[in-house]
Design brief:
Blueprint: H1 8-39, H2 55-84, E1 91-98, E2 101-105, E3 111-112, E4 115-118, E5 123-129, E6 134-138, E7 143-147, E8 153-157, E9 163-169, E10 182-187, H3 189-198, H4 205-211, E11 237-242, E12 245-250, H5 253-261, E13 267-268, H6 284-296
Parallel strand pairs: 1-5, 4-10
Antiparallel strand pairs: 1-2, 2-3, 5-8, 6-7, 6-9, 9-10, 11-12, 11-13
Helix pairs in contact: 1-2
Amino acid sequence: MSGASSYSGLVDQTFWLILGSSVIMLLGITAVLIYFVVKYRRSTNPNPAQIEGSKRLEILWTVLPTILVMVMFYYGWAGFKVMRDIPDDAMEVIVNARMWSWSFEYPNGVQSAELYVPTGEPVSLKLRSSDVIHSFFVPDFRLKEDCMPGRENHAWFETTRDGEFTIFCAEYCGEKHSQMLSKVVSVPPVEFADWLEDNTGPISPEKLLSIKGCVACHTADGTRLIGPSYKGMYGRKELVKTGEEVREIVVDEEYIRRSILDPMADIVEGYAGVMPPMEGQITDEEIDVLIEYFKTLK
C-alpha cells in the first residue's frame, strides 16, 4: 500500500531497512548455525577440544551490530522528527474522540463527522478524548497518535493526492471499538474552500447527532442499541436509576438536558451507564435544537 502523506516515504524507508536487516541477519545466523552443527557433529568429532577466543571476531560482532543499530536509530529519528515538527502555516483542526466516533472542528467553527482537508497543504491536529484513551490511526498516512482524556496531543500531515482514507481507532476502547471509523477526504484546495463555506451556518439535528457521536449508541427509528432510542422518547415515562434509587420520571426538556450534560445522573433501567458527559462539547443552542427534534419523533 503506497503512502498518501508527505512523510509516509520516510516511514516506509525505515520499515524496509529494519525488515531487510532482520531477514539478512536471520538467514546469516541460521546458515552459520547449520554449518557448525554439521561440521562439529559428534560423529566426526568424538573428542571435544577447547577453542580459544578470537579478539578480531569479538570486535567484529560488537562493532557491526552497533553500526547497524545506529543506522536504524538515525532513520527512525529522522522520520520521527519530521512527524513532530508541525509547519507554522498548517491549518488547525480539533479532533474529538469519544466512544465510539470521531468529530472534527475547523478554525471557523464548522464541525463534521469526516475530516475534509485540502490536498497538498499541511493540516495540524489537536487530538482530544472525552472519555477513555483512543488512537487516531490513518494507515495511508503512516500516522498513529493517541487521544487521551485530560491531555491534548498533537500530530500533522499533508496529503499528496486526492481521495478518501479510512480513520481507525487503534486503541481498544470498549464494545464498539471496531466500529469507530471515519475517513479523511482530501480534495483540491478550491473544492475544500467551497465545502468549508457551504457548511458554515446552522447544523441539521441529524447531522448534529452524527457529529456529536450520538448515533453510535442511539437510533431514531426505535431500534435498541447501547442506549435508548429517541423515537417516542419525549413525554414518555421511564424507570431510571439515580444513585442507588430506582424512580419513575417523565422525559421532558430538563431531563434531556441533564442526560446530555451529565448522563450518569439518571441511568435508564436495562441500560449500562457508558455515555461520557458532554459538558463543554455541546452548546445550549445545540441542545435546544436536539430537544425540538426529539419532540417530533413520535
